[in-house]
Design a protein that fits this description.
Elements: H1 3-18, E1 26-27, H2 30-33, E2 49-51, H3 56-68, E3 72-76, E4 92-96, E5 103-107, E6 112-115, H4 121-129, E7 133-134, H5 147-153, H6 160-163, E8 170-176, E9 182-186, H7 198-202, E10 211-218, E11 220-221, E12 225-233, H8 236-248, E13 255-259, H9 261-267, E14 281-289, H10 291-305, E15 311-314, H11 318-329, H12 331-334, E16 341-348, H13 354-368, E17 372-377, E18 382-389, H14 394-413, H15 432-435, H16 438-451
Parallel strand pairs: 2-4, 3-4
Antiparallel strand pairs: 1-2, 5-6, 6-10, 7-11, 8-9, 8-10, 12-14, 12-15, 13-14, 13-17, 16-18, 17-18
Helix pairs in contact: 13-14
Length: 465
C-alpha cells in the first residue's frame, strides 16, 4: 500500500467513524484486511479498506463517501465463491455484508421469507423448517455461504434438478446503486409483469450492478418424505441412460448426483458399504414429496434398474441415508490424495451430452497425463471438472492450464456453458468471448454502464479485459 493510499485510508476511516460507524466496522490493519481479500479460489489481494455495515443506511453512507473519491467498491459475503467474484482487483473498498444477517420475516400465509444478504443459507433452511416450510436451493457451501452471495452468483446445488437454482426462488430485491440511490424490484405477488424484470437482472450479476440489501424468497411446503438410493453402473453411458429413463418414466427426483470412476476409487475405502471393482459411475438419487408418491416412485426406480445396475442400495432410515451420502460428502477431501492441487471448473452441458463430454475429458486426461476427476449434478448436466496436479511442478502446471482451454472448447462445442453455478468472476473472464458473440457482450456492457457509469462496482469481473 502506497503512502498516498495510506493517507486516503486514514481519511476515509475517520469520516466513517464520524458518520456513526463503530471502530470494529472499519478494518484498516494489514493483518485484518487479509481476511477480506480472498475466496475459495485461493486468490489473495489486499483491499485499501474493509467495511462491515450493519444496516442499509450504512451501505448508503459508504457508497456516498466512496463516490466522493471515485473509489472502487467490492461487495462480499462469506468468501466461499469459486470464481474470484469477491476478489478486489484494484485499490478499493470491500463492503462485507455478513453483519446484515437478520431474517426479517417469515410470511407463512404467502410462503415468503424476507431476509438480509448476510443470512447463512443453512440457517434460513432450519428456521423455515420450524414453520413446516422448505427453502430448496442447497449449494455445497450452505453451512457458511450467505443468501446474498447465493443470489449474486445464482448458486445451484444437488436439488436443482427438481427445484431449480437460487434465482427461481427470488421474488424481489432492494438494492443500492453505486451513487447511493435505492431501487426496489419485484414483490410478493406470484404474477407481476409491471416493467422490466430487474430482479432477474440483478440475480447472478456478481455484484457488478448494485449492492443488494434485502431479498424476498419463495418458500414451499416441506416434503413429507425423502427417499435416497445409490445405484452403480458399469459405464457412464449406462448411467446417462438411467437418468433419461427416470425422467421418461415420470420419476421426478429432487437430486441426481453422479461420481465418475476416479471419484469412486478415491472414496471407496472410506465407505460403509461395498462397491464392486466394475463400478464405473455411481448415481445418488433422492425422491421427495408426499409419502404415497415417494413410495410409488421409489418402487418404480427399483423395478427399472434392478437388472442393469451393478448395485442398488435403498436407505431405510435417516442413518442409512447419511451413509449413502458419505460417497459424495467425502469426495472433495478424498481427491486431495490423488494430487496436492486441483483446477476446479463447473461446466454444464445438455443432458444428452454428458456421456460424450465425460468420454472426451477422459481422453484429454490421457493426453496430458493428469487425472481429471468429474462429479456433479447428472440431473441438470452441471459437471464439476477437477484437473488434478502438483502446481509446484512447472510442467504439470502448464499442462493443467492448457487442459482448461480444451475443457471449455469441448464444453462449448457440445452446446454447453462455461459455468453452471459458480459464475464467471475473474477466473473465467478470459473465456467469456468464446461463449458469447461481440454484440451480446456489448449489450451486457451497456447494461453495466447504465447501472455503473464509472465501472466502480466490482470491476474486473465477468467481462474480458
Amino acid at each position: 500500500m502506497t503512502e498516498l493510499t495510506e493517507i486516503l485510508q486514514r481519511q476515509l476511516a475517520l469520516k466513517l467513524l464520524k458518520n456513526g460507524f463503530h471502530p470494529e466496522q472499519v478494518v484498516t490493519s494489514a493483518a485484518a484486511l487479509s481476511c477480506y481479500g480472498y475466496d475459495a479460489t485461493r486468490q489473495q489481494t489486499e483491499p485499501m479498506l474493509a467495511l462491515l455495515p450493519e444496516n442499509e443506511e450504512q451501505v448508503k453512507t459508504i457508497l456516498k463517501i466512496a463516490g466522493e473519491k471515485s473509489l472502487k467498491i467490492f461487495p462480499r459475503g462469506a468468501g466461499s465463491g469459486m470464481s474470484g467474484g469477491s476478489i478486489p482487483t484494484d485499490d478499493g473498498i470491500i463492503i462485507s455484508l455478513t453483519r446484515m444477517k437478520q431474517i426479517l420475516e417469515i410470511d407463512e400465509e404467502n410462503m415468503i421469507a424476507t431476509v438480509e444478504p448476510g443470512v447463512i443459507t443453512g440457517e434460513l433452511q432450519e428456521e423455515v423448517s420450524r414453520c413446516g416450510l422448505f427453502y430448496p436451493p442447497d449449494p455445497a457451501s450452505l453451512a457458511f455461504s450467505t443468501i446474498g452471495g447465493n443470489v449474486t452468483e445464482n448458486a445451484g446445488g444437488p436439488r436443482a434438478v427438481k427445484y431449480g437454482v437460487t434465482g427461481n426462488f427470488v421474488m424481489g430485491l432492494e438494492a443500492y446503486l453505486v451513487n447511493g440511490e435505492k431501487i426496489k424490484c419485484g414483490n410478493k405477488c406470484i404474477k407481476s409483469v409491471s416493467g422490466y424484470d430487474l430482479t432477474s437482472l440483478l440475480v447472478g450479476s456478481e455484484g457488478t450492478l448494485a449492492i443488494i440489501t434485502k431479498i424476498l424468497l419463495k418458500l414451499l411446503p416441506a416434503p413429507e418424505t425423502v427417499k435416497t438410493s445409490l445405484l452403480a453402473f458399469a459405464s457412464m453411458s449406462a448411467a446417462a441412460r438411467a437418468v433419461n429413463a427416470m425422467l421418461k418414466h415420470q420419476i421426478n427426483p429432487s437430486t441426481i448426483e453422479f461420481l465418475d470412476h476416479h471419484s469412486i476409487n478415491a472414496v471407496r475405502s472410506a465407505l460403509p458399504f461395498t462397491l464392486p471393482e466394475a463400478a464405473d459411475t455411481v448415481l445418488l438419487v433422492e425422491i421427495d414429496g408426499p409419502d404415497a408418491l415417494v413410495k410409488a416412485q421409489s418402487e418404480k426406480l427399483s423395478r427399472l434398474f434392478q437388472d442393469e445396475a451393478l448395485v442398488l442400495i435403498e436407505a431405510k432410515d435417516e442413518n442409512e441415508r447419511e451413509q449413502l451420502w458419505l460417497a459424495r460428502r467425502k469426495l472433495s477431501p478424498a481427491i486431495a490424495n490423488i494430487a496436492p492441487h486441483k483446477i476446479n471448473e463447473d461446466i454444464a452441458v445438455p443432458l444428452a451430452a454428458i456421456p460424450e463430454v465425460i468420454s472426451r475429458l477422459e481422453k484429454l486426461s490421457q493426453e496430458i497425463d493428469l487425472p481429471i476427476v468429474c462429479f456433479g449434478h447428472a440431473g441438470d448436466g452441471n459437471i464439476h471438472v477437477n484437473v488434478m496436479l502438483d502446481k509446484n511442478d512447472p510442467a504439470q502446471a502448464i499442462r493443467g492450464h492448457k487442459a482448461i482451454d480444451e475443457i471449455f472448447a469441448i464444453t462449448l462445442e457440445l452446446g454447453g456453458t462455461l459455468s453452471g453455478e459458480h459464475g464467471i468472476g475473474n477466473t473465467k473472464s478470459a473465456y467469456f468471448s468464446k461463449e458469447w458473440t461481440p454484440a451480446t457482450i456489448a449489450t451486457m456492457k451497456a447494461i453495466k454502464k447504465a447501472f455503473d457509469p464509472g465501472n466502480r462496482l466490482n470491476p474486473g469481473k465477468i467481462f474480458p479485459a
